[in-house]
Amino acid sequence: MIPQDQLRKVLNRFEAVQAEMNSDIAPDKFVALSKEFSDLQAVAEAAQGLLQARTDFDDAKEMLADPEMVEMAREEITRLNAELPALERAMQLLLLPKDAADELNSIIEVRAGTGGDEASLFAGDLFRMYQRYADLQGWKMELISTASGDVGGFKEVVASIRGKGVFAKMKFESGVHRVQRVPTTESGGRIHTSAATVAVLPEPEEVDIKLEDKDLRIDVFRASGAGGQHVNTTDSAVRITHLPTGIVVNQQDEKSQHKNKAKAMLIMRARLFEAERNRVDQERSDARKDLIGSGDRSERIRTYNFPQGRVTDHRINLTLHKLDNILAGDGLHELVNALIAEDEVRRLASMGEDEGA
Facing residues of 148 across strands? Predict the structure, then answer.
């Protein structure tokens, strides 16, 4: 049970923020308080509801001593016994530490893995699934770079996704995705297994990642291509190397060197931000390994089995027999919501262990 004083502390802070916002303060201070007010509002409302329910429960127990109120008191106790656990859980979830990156936009990178042409086709299937899912969420997806497969799909595709709560929902997609199906070129009807990797990186604000000129080596070169009119005749392609970490980003999709550099810097910031997050996560996971949300790209996270029409997420042992619906984008939310719910359960259990330590 959440202590009463912790609930009152939330309410007191919420009221203090309200009062300060109504006072004569500087504009930048008002902006900061407005954000805190928005973050606290749902928590304060839940705290108030839980405190009231506890008060009502105590009042109902006292009413049992009055013969004329016994029946009403028992009805009230029955109702509150059913409601209080849900109110407690909702409050616990709101009090869980937030992932600071959850509200950030994201960079998504999908790459063909083992399986040759079939892996490229599967990478294309995955990317289209994310495009449709993003559209259904009201997000905006913008291509950053592509490398097409020889027979379709992508050897590699990188895009930005912008909108509300993008990383909170997309972060669980990082990892190895495996497909089992009969390729169209397979005359014997044999099932082939191929794979693609997905990396979802939070896109930091410029203030989150400071890129010093002394830490960067920027090379320009002539873009390569299939030939013909699409090959640039100027040095428009850009390669940026972050010297302290060795992270390298190449960008050549645009004809403008300036645009290629801007896109490369965007990806570089995201990769550096993710590298720092992974370092911090690794330190935390030394004590407790958390598979959900670890972003471990060496892990096979999901299998798409076409002959059986099923998708299995191996992290939570969930199998859904609606492969077409999931690849169409509108069914992906069921997997995402299940992963979020499992993550909440794990974090609640972790919080309980920490409190009991």
Answer: 154
